[in-house]
Each structure stands twice: as structure tokens, then as C-alpha cells.
Amino acid sequence: MPAVPAEGEDTVVRAKSIPEAAVARLAVYLRVLSGMAEQGLTTVSSEELSAAAGVNSAKLRKDLSYLGSYGTRGVGYEVQVLVSQIERILGLTRQHKVAVVGIGNLGHALANYGGFPGRGFPVEALFDLDPDLIGVPVGGLPVSHLEDIPRVCAERQISIGIIATPPTAAQSVCDRLVAGGVQCILNFAPVVLQVPSYIEVRKVDLAVELQILSFHVARRADIAEAALENQGKPGLPGTALPVDNGNGNGNGNGHKGAGTDGGRGMVVR
Ligand SMILES: NC(=O)c1ccc[n+]([C@@H]2O[C@H](COP(=O)([O-])OP(=O)(O)OC[C@H]3O[C@@H](n4cnc5c(N)ncnc54)[C@H](O)[C@@H]3O)[C@@H](O)[C@H]2O)c1
Q1: CoA-binding domain: which residues (predicted)?
Q2: How far is Cα 244 from Cα 247, in angstroms, rounded to an integer?
Q3: Does 180 belong to an annotated binding site?
């Protein structure tokens, strides 16, 4: 007789097999579905959801199949069921406390942004080294000193650290966050961080996103030019297929680079 999976085991097995690009899209579906639930919608068709999320419907159905969700013909998906399934698979059934380090332009914006707590990411600590900032409340939370990162993060059980310092400070900030027990780092500084292999790092680089957009605009111009040149030539297509960038909507995110540093047993991300 096959073993019955323990509660949650099934979710863990499923989560392991989901490609990272699909994980990014699940987060988008969750945002869209939460908005629909707020408006009182109880069911949604895959066409409606794919249009609202900007993802083609075949890719959407494939993504939702990772959850074991296939919808009902003629009815679609139950919004609340999908919300719960995605929250479970993304580990959002519990809160993840966040610390922001570097309370300059970007850090101020992040600390003041009211949208994180409602989505399970309460900002619980802020750090900087500028004496004019220490003790000053930003978004209702006083800024602590850089040196207190390990103690405060451990005490407040911070699990995600956001780095918004100049690049030269980012590695030492990262080391302090790791010492404080954070498990994940969201890095805005344009620098490659060295972390132990059990730490998850995401790098946010708006310039890279803009370059990807630029690539797609250039591709579109090339395609239009080729189509114009081919017009009237027998046997040649007037258009070409766009590049599939993995997220099904032409936005090209979900990139992640990782390798090893070949010595310290660290992962370079
Ligand atoms: N990824 C992106 O898309 C993106 C966009 C904008 C900015 N950035 C990057 O984000 C970072 C912050 O940008 P900004 O415009 O907010 O800079 P900023 O100069 O306004 O703020 C930096 C803050 O970090 C503090 N700081 C400096 N060294 C520190 C240390 N060792 N520990 C703690 N705090 C320290 C400074 O006192 C300051 O308050 C930069 O690295 C910038 O390149 C990234």
C-alpha cells in the first residue's frame, strides 16, 4: 500500500519541483487573485486570470497544475481555494519579519511603504550608521545602529534582510545579517555577495530590468524592419515569433545567477 504523505509533506514535494520562473508567476497570480477576492469574486476562468496577470493561458494552466489545481470545465477556479494553495506553496501561511539596512533614499521608501505587512512581510528593524538617523523613527520604527544588526535580528527573529547601502558596505552588512540569523537577503546594491550555501539571495537591479526591456524593444524593431523588407517577397514570412523569456508575458524577469567562489565553501550570488 502506498504511504500516505504527512500533512504538509505533499506541499513540500510539489514546491521542490516548481521552476523558479513559475514561482515568480505564482506570486503575480496571488496578487491578482487577492484583488479579485477583495472585490467579492468567487470564481475565475483561466482566460480571465491569464488576462489580468499578463501571462498566456497555456502557461497559466501549467503553473496552476504545479499546485494540483486544474479548475472545473465551464466554471473555472475557485478564487479563495487558489489563494490558499498559492499561499501555502509560497510559504506565506506564516509571517516573515524583514529588516532594512541603509535608510537613505531607497531605505526610506521601503520603510515607509505600507504594502509589505499585509502581504506577510512586516518590517521590524531598520539599520544605518549615520548618527543623524540613529533613533529617528522612519515609518514608525526607530533606526538602530549597524553594529546592533546581529543582536536585534536574533532578538526579533528577522528572517529577511534588505540591503540598501552603498555597494562598498554591502558585504559587511550581509555578514552581519547572516550572523543575526537571517535566512534570505534581498540585495539592491550593485555588488555580488558571498554567502553560506544555506542563505537565499535575490538581487534587484532595475538597470538590468531596463536593459531587458530595451532588448525586447530592439527585437520588435528588428522584426518590424524584417517584415517590411520581406513584404512582397514570395515564400518569406512577413513576421517572426517573439522570444520566449520564460514568464510568458514578455517581461523577462525571474533571472538568477549563482555559482561558487571555489574556496570558502560560499555561494556567490
Ligand atoms: N537595485 C536597484 O534597482 C537600485 C535602485 C536604486 C538604488 N540602488 C542601490 O541601492 C543602494 C542605496 O541607494 P540610495 O539611493 O538609497 O543611497 P543613499 O546614499 O541615499 O543611502 C544609503 C544609506 O546607507 C547608509 N549606509 C552607508 N554605509 C552603511 C553601512 N555600512 N551600514 C549601514 N548603513 C550604511 C547611509 O548612511 C545612507 O543612509 C545603492 O547601493 C544603490 O546603488 C539600487
Answers
A1: 91-192
A2: 8
A3: no
